[in-house]
Amino acid sequence: MGNVHESITPELAEFATSQPVFFVATAPTHEGHVNVSPKGLEPVVVLGPHEVAYIDRTGSGVETIAHLRDNGRITLMFCAFEGKPNIVRFAGIGEAIRPDDERFAELLARFPDTPAVRSIIRVDVDRVSDSCGYGVPLMELKGDRRALDGWAANKSEADIIEYHETRNATSIDGLRGI
Fold first, then answer.
1. Residue 172 maps to a domain
2. Residue 167's CB: how many other CB atoms inside 10 A?
3. Domain count of the fold of the chain
4. Most buried residue, 23, 36, 66, 103, by CB count within 10 Å?
5. Half-sphere exposure of 50 toward its Cβ, with a 13 Å CA cutoff?
6. CA 106/CA 116 separation, integer angstroms
7. Which residues of the chain form beta strands (DSSP E)?
8. What's the Cα-to-Cα distance from 13 to each of 48, 125, 137, 158, rounded to whole Å?
């Protein structure tokens, strides 16, 4: 049986921030595709008892940003793939904070140095829950895939901006991305 918590407790924050991978789910308001994206190169940062953020790196799609522009709904899910079984979800309203936003630099300072940052996804968490995780398999982490770092190292800042403007302009459902 799952539990709903008043806020992100220190124990839940520790669990979430220690997971090597988490999943982000968003969906458009009306017809369209639900999106679930794995995230793992950079950690989620707990900013307060009802606020989290993570780095949104350049990618082939722009579904999360487009869906947040559309309706803001977002859920982050963290699973224990080793140790005690557990699943934690943070649901709420999110926003994509882009480099031209005055809040961007201050938030970016909370993260390790990261290439190809497209935005920072910040979430006002209005539901914190956990559940058993008995169905999640035990898995061993072999390491991070750093292919995105290599791709970014061969691009100038202008190249990355052009990529965002051409390849991340709209979602697969035609919603505005960047």
1. no
2. 15
3. 1
4. 66
5. 9
6. 17
7. 3-5, 22-26, 35-39, 45-48, 51-57, 73-79, 87-97, 117-131
8. 9, 12, 22, 36
Which residues lie below 8 Å from residue 174, measured CB to CB, with a gap of 6+?
none
Q: Two tokens at 76?
A: 């982050």
Looking only at the bridges linking them, the beta strands covering 51-57 and 45-48 are antiparallel
The domain of 122 spans 3-167
CA 96/CA 125 separation, integer angstroms: 15
8 A C-beta contact, residue 53 and residue 25: no
CATH number, domain with residue 58 = 2.30.110.10
pLDDT at residue 12 tops 70? yes
What's the predicted TM-score (pTM) here? 0.95
Burial 48-79 (b: 16+ CB within 10 A, else e): eebbbbbbbbbbeebbbbbbbbbebbbbbbbb
Arithmetic mean of pLDDT, 129-156: 93
Q: Which residue has the tokens 């999640």?
A: 136
pLDDT, one tens digit per residue, over 51-84 is 999 999 999 999 999 999 999 999 999 999 999 9
Stretch 165-171: mean pLDDT: 95
* Residue pair 89/58 in contact by the 8 Å Cβ criterion: no
Does some domain include residue 174?
no
